[in-house]
């Protein structure tokens, strides 16, 4: 079987809700990433055989197959198709898996895996909040309700359940959140993200631009302190999680170009990384966010690897209890986890985060001269993707 190689990986800097990316239609924002991938590889755009794009809020401006719309908004020719993927927060990590599987099978040679989410323009939960009429309108079916009587699936509830299960106190979560900001600040000030970020013009509400380029993740709190984080109110009375220890609402897009050996020859480029292993796992949908823990253990077993053989980890910071519980269970070195900060500081653009995290991971492996990287993230419904890549 052929191998799957990543030959380019880019992302936009994250934008706050109503911030510097809010003027962009999500299809146009995603198109910026597609064009950047072509530019960085020097690829003939007509050679791209598919664009697989993750997006969670597939409603409004993100409806109607956002992947194909992004292609039509880009400089790619009409011959390039596109399909949209929803595996909740892992949507664009799943897009990477699908792209890798396509080139490994030999049915395609060059595929783009990407993701986008404008949480400003398509608010979280919009696709599942249609007005109920005659009992219609809920995403939770009667059969699901029968299987999980009285359960209202909630990531906020799952985060609190994880904090209690893994004996994580609010102080633990607050300290982790501060670390996320501190690492993101250090990475930004050192210019670490420059290689992966695509500069995007700031669009004003009327669609015009003022010459400003968005190049710095807008969610980073450069003045964050333990005291300021500790002053944020709890999300639930008697709970442990606050908005400061949860991922930030974010606008953003990211993408990776994935090829096999034949694709390498067609493009004449050197690979950045090889996809070493891919795993998917379903888990308890009530606690919901715990799936990265068993999924990582499952992936390592299938890959025949030990946790210490992995040099860098990207575990999405949907809520602080997730990476902390993951660390506690796997025994991974915390100094290898989210070394440039995570979603608590950098933002979590839902369907765009999988490609975003992998982009950061691949570049970090090169910058630090490391070999193996592992990415995982919790997903709505109690699932997790795990991807292990090898730097080349």
**SSE string, helices as H and strands as E:** EHEHEHEHHHEEHEHEHEHHHEE
Tally of individual helices? 12
Strand content: 15-25%
How is the main sheet built?
9 strands, mixed
Spatial shape: globular
Tell me the strand order in the biggest sheet: 3-2-4-7-1-8-11-10-9
Explain this structure to me?
- With 392 residues, the protein is α/β, with parallel strands linked by helices.
- It has 12 helices and 11 strands.
- The protein has helices at 26-41, 66-73, 91-105, 142-147, 155-165, 170-189, 226-230, 261-267, 292-303, 321-330, 343-346, 353-368, and strands at 5-11, 50-54, 82-85, 110-118, 200-203, 209-214, 251-259, 273-282, 312-315, 372-379, 383-391.
- Strands 3-2-4-7-1-8-11-10-9 form a 9-stranded mixed sheet, with helices on both faces. It has a two-stranded antiparallel ribbon with strand order 5-6.
- The model has no long low-confidence stretch (mean pLDDT 95).
What features would you highlight for this structure?
single chain, Acetyl-CoA acetyltransferase, 12 helices, 9-stranded mixed beta sheet, 392 residues, 11 strands, two-stranded antiparallel sheet, alpha/beta, transferase
Task: List the topology elements.
Elements: E1 5-11, H1 26-41, E2 50-54, H2 66-73, E3 82-85, H3 91-105, E4 110-118, H4 142-147, H5 155-165, H6 170-189, E5 200-203, E6 209-214, H7 226-230, E7 251-259, H8 261-267, E8 273-282, H9 292-303, E9 312-315, H10 321-330, H11 343-346, H12 353-368, E10 372-379, E11 383-391
Parallel strand pairs: 2-3, 2-4, 9-10
Antiparallel strand pairs: 1-7, 1-8, 4-7, 5-6, 8-11, 10-11
Helix pairs in contact: 1-2, 3-12, 9-10
Keywords: Acyltransferase, Transferase
Pfam family, one: Thiolase_N
Domain Thiolase N-terminal: 5-261
């Amino acid at each position: 079987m052929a191998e799957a190689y990543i030959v380019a990986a880019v992302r936009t800097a994250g934008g706050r809700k109503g911030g510097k990316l809010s003027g962009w239609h999500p299809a146009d924002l995603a198109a910026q990433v597609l064009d950047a991938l072509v530019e960085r590889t020097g690829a003939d755009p007509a050679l791209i055989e598919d664009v697989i794009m993750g997006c969670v809020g597939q409603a409004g401006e993100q409806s109607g197959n956002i992947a194909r719309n992004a292609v039509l908004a880009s400089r790619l020719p009409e011959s390039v198709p596109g399909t949209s993927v929803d595996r909740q927060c892992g949507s664009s990590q799943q897009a990477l898996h699908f792209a890798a599987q396509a080139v490994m099978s030999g049915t395609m040679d060059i595929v783009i895996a990407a993701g986008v989410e404008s949480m400003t323009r398509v608010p979280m939960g919009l696709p599942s909040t249609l007005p109920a009429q005659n009992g219609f309108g809920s995403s939770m079916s009667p059969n699901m309700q029968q299987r999980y009587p009285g359960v209202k699936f909630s990531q906020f509830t799952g985060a609190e359940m994880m904090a209690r299960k893994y004996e994580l106190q609010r102080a633990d979560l607050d300290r982790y959140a501060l670390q996320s900001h501190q690492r993101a600040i250090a990475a930004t000030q050192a210019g670490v993200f420059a290689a992966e970020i695509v500069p995007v013009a700031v669009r004003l509400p009327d669609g015009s631009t003022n010459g400003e380029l968005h190049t710095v993740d807008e969610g980073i709190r450069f003045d964050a302190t333990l005291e300021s984080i500790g002053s944020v109110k709890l999300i639930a009375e008697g709970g442990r999680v606050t908005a400061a220890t949860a991922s930030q609402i974010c606008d953003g897009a990211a993408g990776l170009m994935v090829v096999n050996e034949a694709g390498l020859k067609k493009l004449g480029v050197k690979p950045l990384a090889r996809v070493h292993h891919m795993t998917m796992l379903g888990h308890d949908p009530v606690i919901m966010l715990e799936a990265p823990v068993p999924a990582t253990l499952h992936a390592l077993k299938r890959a025949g690897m030990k946790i210490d053989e992995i040099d860098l980890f990207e575990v999405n910071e949907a809520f602080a209890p997730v990476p902390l519980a993951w660390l506690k269970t796997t025994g991974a070195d915390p100094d290898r986890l989210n070394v440039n900060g995570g979603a608590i500081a950098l933002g979590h653009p839902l369907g765009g985060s999988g490609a975003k995290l992998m982009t950061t991971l691949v570049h970090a492996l090169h910058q630090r001269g490391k070999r193996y990287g592992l990415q995982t993230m919790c997903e709505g419904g109690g699932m997790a993707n795990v991807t292990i890549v090898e730097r080349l």
